[in-house]
UniProtKB/TrEMBL annotation:
InterPro entries: BACK, BTB/POZ_dom, Kelch-typ_b-propeller, Kelch_1, LZTR1/Attractin, SKP1/BTB/POZ_sf
tRNA-binding recorded as keyword: no
Every BTB domain range: 373-440
Gene name of this polypeptide: Contig6986.g7474
UniProt lineage: Eukaryota, Sar, Alveolata, Ciliophora, Intramacronucleata
Name this protein carries in UniProt: Kelch repeat
Cellular component GO terms, alphabetical: Golgi apparatus
KW Metal-binding (keyword) present: no
Assigned keywords, A-Z: Kelch repeat, Repeat
Length: 529
């Protein structure tokens, strides 16, 4: 047995048996509160609906298809708390609920804790779940090609491979493969990976993966981004919750656990995740004690968590709800807490998400890849490609070099002497990005860059180096820095070295190397005495 496959003692989540207690924060709305335009982006709105909504429910699925949210199945929260197999559709533009015209005899069997994914914009793929008596293993296709009101349900008659039973798992479709992770089979909390080929209707798995896989879990979140699947949270047994992040690179089936920073959410089960650009928005969940209604964002590009302050009519804390993004709005439907199940629908405008600027990354990429390069610098055994127009526009030295009449203006290969390849590369990186990274550089390396910056007329880079070196003046290096700053016109560094020397005059002047300073420097020191 896989060491991460934990015995599964119940078909229902552990929090269903938790003692009833007040929620962490009831729905709240202050009519007198004033919101700035920026705050409106995160101001909750209670949707005034038309039409007959579904019954209150949890553990259902909600799949976005254009402007529509297609709700299937789940467990009713009122009355006999039946597990259902009905289909409701919410039109986000008209705020209208309706049911499609479907022969009820053709509906899939009732279920909860299943997965539902849109494939190619033409089909919804429903898989697994629990029908109240057993864990399911069937795959159902809902054909959308004839329109939202004429759904066709197709149950494949022939599927290859062993169909695994799963509930409270996750499924993500990338290309024509559906990747199923975790969940329970009625006996264990699982961490295996299954793949279903949607074209050939064939199961494979458990699939061998690389790296360290997440522990077995159910009721977690899984979001796909650039052929990677990001797993967050869930429960590894009846007593604990998780807030870890893993991702599976489907190109090589390798698991990784990123090092994250920022304001992480508390460990929780049954939170929902929705992707906008490269950010995953998580809402709600249950942390083992309290039901939540907070919003956290995970920035995939920077591996950073942040908590979003929201306003307006906040949803009642809940879990086992669904969430979808439609035209920049996060829609929440249903779910439950310790007292109630819900059939309300609320929207949180996320606003226009402006990606972080990429010009520095793009410019460095051009330099490193040599894309469209029209000049090559030769420094010993090293050859560095670059772009004349960028160099000339950012550096007067290169502008003069490439001016008509100069020999280098006609050459595409230029030999550079009296400077190391590593230092020259750092000069070019500054020219391309107008920034300089001092991490992992020693004092001698920074001195080399400062000297080169002075030679090439890069005054801003020279001053950045001066600023760095000023912070590192001490009794061991002050004489060397004073000499170099005088030789290479590093005015501020020289001034600070003189000040330091005057403060420790008796100690510095007794050093042997002090006698090697030029007469002009010695004169300046005497004038400051």
């Amino acid at each position: 047995m896989n060491q991460h496959n934990i015995p599964f003692n119940s078909s229902m989540s552990s929090f269903m048996s938790a003692a009833s207690q007040p929620s962490v924060q009831d729905s709240e709305f202050n009519q007198n509160t004033q919101y700035s335009p920026e705050q409106q982006d995160y101001c909750w709105q209670m949707i005034k609906i038309n039409g007959q909504p579904p019954t209150t429910r949890n553990c259902h699925s909600s799949t976005q298809f254009g402007q529509y949210l297609i709700i299937f199945g789940g467990r009713e929260g009122d009355g006999k708390k039946r597990i259902v197999n009905d289909i409701y559709i919410f039109d986000t533009e008209k705020s209208n609920w309706f049911q499609p015209k479907i022969d009820k005899s053709k509906l899939p069997q009732l279920r909860m804790g299943h997965s539902s994914q849109l494939w190619k914009g033409t089909h919804i793929i429903i898989y697994g779940g629990w029908n109240g008596a057993q864990v399911l293993s069937d795959v159902i296709f809902i054909d959308l090609r004839k329109g939202i009101d004429k759904l066709q349900i197709v149950i494949p008659s022939m599927i290859r491979g062993e169909a695994p039973m799963r509930q409270f798992h996750t499924a993500n479709i990338i290309d024509n493969q559906m990747y199923v992770f975790g969940g329970g089979d009625g006996k264990y909390w699982l961490n295996d990976l299954l793949i279903f080929d949607l074209v050939n209707l064939e199961w494979s798995g458990p699939v061998q993966t690389n790296g360290i896989a997440p522990v077995g879990r159910l009721q977690h979140s899984a979001i796909s981004y650039e052929k990677k699947i990001f797993i967050c949270g869930g429960e590894p047994d009846q007593f604990r919750q998780l807030n870890d992040i893993f991702y599976l690179d489907t190109s090589n089936l390798t698991w990784s656990k990123p090092q994250v920073t920022g304001d992480e959410p508390s460990a929780r089960v049954s939170t929902t995740g929705c992707l906008i650009d490269s950010r995953i928005y998580y809402f709600g969940g249950y942390d083992g004690v309290q039901w939540m209604n907070d919003v956290h964002v995970f920035d995939i590009e920077n591996n950073r968590w942040s908590k979003i302050e929201t306003y307006g009519y906040k949803p009642r804390p809940r879990c086992r709800h669904t969430a979808n993004i439609v035209k920049g709005q996060l829609y929440i439907f249903g779910g439950n807490d310790c007292e109630l199940s819900f059939n309300d629908i609320l929207a949180l405008p996320i606003g226009v998400q402006v990606p972080e600027p990429t010009i520095l990354k793009d410019m460095i990429g051009m330099l490193e890849n040599g894309t469209f390069a029209d000049v090559t610098f030769v420094l010993g055994e090293s050859r560095i490609k670059a772009h004349k127009c960028i160099l000339a526009s950012r550096c007067s030295f290169f502008a003069s070099m490439f001016t008509v009449g100069m020999r280098e203006s006609q050459e595409s290969v230029i030999t550079v002497q009296d400077i190391s390849a590593s230092t020259f590369k750092k000069l070019l990186e500054f020219i391309y990005t107008d920034s300089f990274q001092f991490q992992h550089l020693g004092q001698d390396q920074v001195i080399d860059v400062m000297v080169a910056a002075n030679r090439y007329g890069l005054d801003r880079l020279k001053r950045l180096c001066e600023k760095f070196l000023v912070k590192h003046i001490d009794l061991d290096n002050v004489i060397e820095l004073l000499y170099l700053s005088d030789m290479h016109q590093a005015i501020e560094l020289k001034r600070m070295c003189i000040n330091f020397t005057m403060a420790y005059f008796d100690i510095v002047t007794k050093k042997e190397e002090f006698k090697k300073l030029s007469k002009s420097i010695l004169l300046e020191l005497l004038q400051n005495k």
